[in-house]
Amino acid sequence: MAPYSFSVSLLVKSFSLLSLRCLTSEASCPPKRPLNGYMRYVQQQKPIMANQNPEIKAVELVRKIAQQWRSMSPEQKQPFQEASLRAMEQFKVDLKRYQAQLTPAQLQQQAQEKRRRMAKRKTIRKKRELTNLGKPKRPRSPFNIFMSEHFEEARGATSQAKMKSLLEDWRNLFSHQKQVYTQLAEDDKIRYKNEMKSWEDHMVEIGREDLIREQTLSAKKKPAAKAPAAKKVTKAKTEKKAAATAKSKTTTKTTKSRSTPKMC
What we know:
It is extended and about 95 Å long. About 75% of the residues lie in helices and about 0% in strands. It folds into 3 domains: about 10-100, DNA Binding (I), subunit A (Orthogonal Bundle); about 105-130; about 140-205, High mobility group box domain (DNA Binding (I), subunit A), CATH 1.10.30.10. It is mainly α. It is found in: Mitochondrion matrix, Mitochondrion nucleoid. InterPro entries: HMG_box_dom, HMG_box_dom_sf, HMGB. One of its GO terms (molecular function) is DNA binding. Pfam families: HMG_box.
């Protein structure tokens, strides 16, 4: 399956990062991870396709290259994939040589940086997944609603200047003027609550309980936790009542035995 999700901007950014990754000497620069077979094909075909189709947008250009790659036979893909395998073997040798030059502190720093990058990627992937699953947007604050309504006519040439002027305008509003946006924010909270309930119910239906909020799971577990406690209280009341009945019978029996006259 061809990776259609690649965009030209992402490709250009990746190539730029690879070229600017190390600005120091060659010895201190880590080896660059080689491109896979598909990316090698994109790198080869991009200038050719751009010359043949100068009017096509960048995203459409990459889409056409991806379609070509998908329609290619295994024999046609083989040269690109074999070149990638050879480059990967060389990369492993160069990486081992490079890491042998590093101090323990540098190795630890690299490991921490790798964990940070992986955590960031995981967060991005999860956010993208939640968006694809239609998770409702969080409710907006009163100021956010005010800002979205007046951003276009706000003072300032840049976004930062506009936001600063809007913040000043917000602080100068009277209480009854802010109340309008406060009420809108409250309505948005109700909207979010209702949409989240429907969304989480749907996640349960499709087997994605892992995406449900902790507070929702806790709320669902509370009734089940109260049931044993109620049974325990009922059992204690039953035992107490049985003990009282037994004591009453014993007292009655003793009274009767005392009131009965002795036979000579």
